[in-house]
Design goal:
heterodimer; A: 392 residues; alpha/beta; nine-stranded mixed β-sheet; two-stranded antiparallel sheet; 18 helices; 11 strands; globular; disordered N terminus; B: three-stranded antiparallel β-sheet
Chain lengths: 392, 89
């Protein structure tokens, strides 16, 4: 038997189906968050899939074994066919998750989505204070989010509150926990900012000091026992400061499949900025062939692509060498060891970034002043169409 | 937390849904952004946690369905664990 053939077959057999399908229905969003994970040039990808195309994606992914479906964006509620998409996904047997800013989730719509079979809603908050929530999203949305949280709970949805954490709001973590508790959230996800997209653009402003992180984590641990059985807190590890590579997406092309608004299939939210990879579009390819056969999905699957640093490491099957996008952003080489790892030859660069964060005053040294729709505040660049076009 | 009595009627927690998954060849519990694979005994017990069936009836049903006597202590032990993980209430 041809040796190459058997290796190929062996590899194909080991590839498990995607379990998580993230449908980024649109990059349109009424908010302008400075840490948005969407591409900084998102205005280039406005050719959105239509209802029928999305339902075909759902059917094909479900047939392969995907069980979780996240409706995300941008703001998925700007799609007028959201109810129809949720109903189709529900009928296929997906557990359906709506990941929303809350803008547009009026009671009538929340009820219609419930009727369509929506299982769960994840609502984002930017902070426990109106001032900072509105400043960071550059919109007047704090009061609206409070109302939406009540609507979600009144309809009996499980509710996850998600708050991206960074220099500005880490000192408020105790109040954020209390706010989530008063809203009867089932989970609170304290998502320490991950530096991609707009957050990468704003990294120097957002990055907290080690002491701010340690202080906030101590507050979280102090609250946990009291909340046992009522609200679970997820503390997303700040990998730059902890020096521990994350098992990004549980491995490239392993369980997670993202379909971007224009139909491009990706192994994670931010992979489309990696050079040298051609990500397949669902308009041209079946999901099965995208997952199993496309060079882009095979590129960093398994361990064959690893540098000697990762390939010789005992943790290679656990952390998968960290994050490919982070490796690229920090070193220019997506196959490099993630520099947050102390074993990376470039780790000193990450250490220097975290250390520098301690030298910046609160609020990045610029006073917080909410100006609706602002393009910038001091060094902070908000996610706006105009700023995105300037990138392109 | 009190122990399970014969008359208690366990029910799946509101955020959980159980279903058979062909690709996994097992029953799974689905919840916000997560999935738990269930072995067969766990699935058989949870299937009967419908909020209407008493623990006594649930045990009797399992004993007759699988032709095995004396399942009560195993079932109650599992129900305890499942409640501790908030799968049932």
């Amino acid at each position: 038997m041809d040796a190459t053939g058997s290796v190929e077959r062996g590899r194909a057999a080991a590839v498990k189906p995607p379990l998580w399908l993230l449908a980024e229905l649109t990059y349109r969003c009424p908010l302008h968050c400075a840490f948005c994970s969407n591409p900084v040039d998102y205005t280039r990808y406005g050719n959105e899939l239509d209802t029928g195309e999305w339902i075909r994606v759902f059917r094909e992914a479900r047939a392969m074994g995907a069980v979780q479906l996240g409706f995300s964006g941008g703001e998925p509620l700007v799609r007028e066919d959201l109810e129809e998409l949720v109903a189709a996904a529900h009928q296929l047997g997906f557990y359906t998750n709506l990941i929303t800013s809350g803008v547009g989730l009026v009671p009538q719509r929340a009820e219609a989505l419930k009727k369509a079979g929506l299982d769960h809603i994840q609502l984002s908050f930017q902070d426990s204070t109106r001032e900072l929530n509105d400043f960071l999203s550059s919109t007047r949305t704090f009061d609206l989010k409070q109302r939406v949280a009540r609507t979600i709970k009144d309809l009996g949805y499980p509710m996850v509150l998600n708050c991206v954490m960074h220099r500005y709001n880490l000192p408020h973590v105790g109040r954020i926990i209390e706010m989530a508790e008063s809203m009867a959230a089932d989970f609170l996800e304290l998502a320490n900012v991950q530096y991609y997209g707009w957050a990468w653009r704003n990294r120097e402003m957002l990055m907290p000091s080690r002491s701010a992180l340690a202080g906030a984590e101590a507050v979280v641990e102090a609250h946990r026992p009291r909340l046992e059985g009522r609200m679970k807190i997820l503390w997303v590890v700040p990998d730059y400061a902890e020096g521990k590579p994350k098992p990004c997406m549980a491995g490239w092309g392993s369980v997670f499949l993202v379909v971007a608004p224009d139909g491009v299939a990706l192994p994670c939210h931010s992979a489309r900025m990696l050079p040298g990879l051609e990500f397949p579009n669902i308009r041209k390819h079946a999901i099965r062939s995208i997952w199993h056969d496309s060079p882009a999905f095979c590129a960093y699957r398994g361990t064959g692509w690893m540098s000697s640093t990762c390939a010789s490491c005992d943790d290679r099957e656990m952390d998968h060498g960290g994050c490919r996008c982070q490796a690229f952003l920090l070193t220019g080489d997506a196959a490099a060891t993630d520099p947050v790892c102390p074993k990376s030859p470039r780790h000193a660069q990450v250490e220097a970034m975290v250390t520098a964060a301690a030298g910046v005053g609160d609020n990045g040294g610029t006073p917080i002043r909410f100006v609706p729709g602002a393009r910038r505040s001091g060094e902070l660049v908000f996610r706006t169409d105009a700023n995105a076009r300037a990138q392109g | 937390m009190s122990a399970w009595t014969d008359s208690a009627q366990p029910a799946l927690g509101t955020m959980y849904r159980m279903q058979w998954e062909e690709a996994q060849q097992c029953h799974v519990l689905l919840f916000p952004e997560g999935m738990i694979r269930l072995n067969q005994p766990a699935a058989e017990i949870l299937k009967r946690c419908d909020g209407k069936t008493s623990v006594a009836a649930l045990v009797a049903d399992l004993e007759s369905t699988f032709g095995e006597p004396d399942l009560r202590s195993d079932v109650v032990e599992f129900l305890e664990q499942a409640r501790g993980r908030h799968w049932i209430r």
